[in-house]
Design brief:
The protein has 212 residues and is mainly alpha-helical. Helices cover 50% and strands 2% of the residues. The protein has helices spanning 23-27, 33-46, 72-75, 77-89, 93-111, 143-164, 168-188, 196-199, 204-208; strands at residues 127-128, 134-135.
Length: 212
């Protein structure tokens, strides 16, 4: 944690991956509001005009890797961090500051969806396997499940932020959109709980974010 959360300090991957940090883990133990607010500014600065976000921020990479590839779960860190800060510090200024940026991200993700389903993405990165190992790419969890789940979560957060900020029309619009995404996801892949492999990880987003 040197101005932004870094991954893998022992190798060249030492960058600010959006998909790695869980702010709540730190917030519950340390007063880190300013740290996360600063990183949100990095994310805001890294956002393209069309709303797209990179998978790392600040943008240290220039030629080694394309940082703007389609990974909805990573991009969703922007609204999730803003929402976590608001939840724990009850300061709506963070929502005011980043409302438009989150709305732009939601619009971008919507442009990548077909009938509210996003089928692109990295999927369940490091998916646990039954033999105790993990897989860099998902072997059992459909990419569309995780990508669409995060899209739903982003829209849900935006609807909540709009309500808090007194943007009634926006709150209704995004709440309606969240409901449509939820219905599309459930219709495409109803939740099944037959075994441990069905329980984790493929159904976890649906359970924790009430998409089932």
């Amino acid at each position: 944690m040197q101005g932004f959360p870094q991954d893998a300090a022992d190798r060249a991957e030492r960058v600010g991956w959006l998909g790695d940090p869980i702010p709540e883990d730190y917030i519950l133990n340390y007063d880190t509001a300013l740290f996360w607010c600063k990183w949100l500014e990095d994310l805001k600065d890294s956002q393209k005009p069309d709303g797209d976000l990179p998978v790392i921020s600040p943008l240290h990479w220039r030629r080694t890797f394309e940082p703007y590839h389609m990974s909805p779960c990573w991009k969703s860190t922007y609204p999730i961090v803003a929402w976590d800060i608001y939840q724990h510090y009850a300061d709506k200024r963070v929502l005011e500051r980043h409302y438009q940026g989150i709305a732009k991200l939601v619009a971008f993700l919507g442009s990548q969806a077909t009938d509210h389903i996003i089928s692109k993405g990295l999927g369940d990165h490091m998916e646990p396997q039954q033999d105790g190992t993990s897989s860099s790419g998902p072997q059992h969890t459909p990419v569309s499940l995780t990508s669409t789940a995060y899209y739903y979560r982003d829209v849900w957060i935006l609807a909540q932020a709009a309500q808090i900020l007194g943007k009634t029309a926006d709150a209704e619009k995004y709440a309606r959109l969240a409901g449509e995404i939820k219905l599309a996801q459930v219709a495409r892949r109803p939740m099944r709980l037959r075994s441990t492999s069905d329980w984790f990880p493929r159904n976890m987003p649906k359970l924790s974010w009430k998409i089932s």
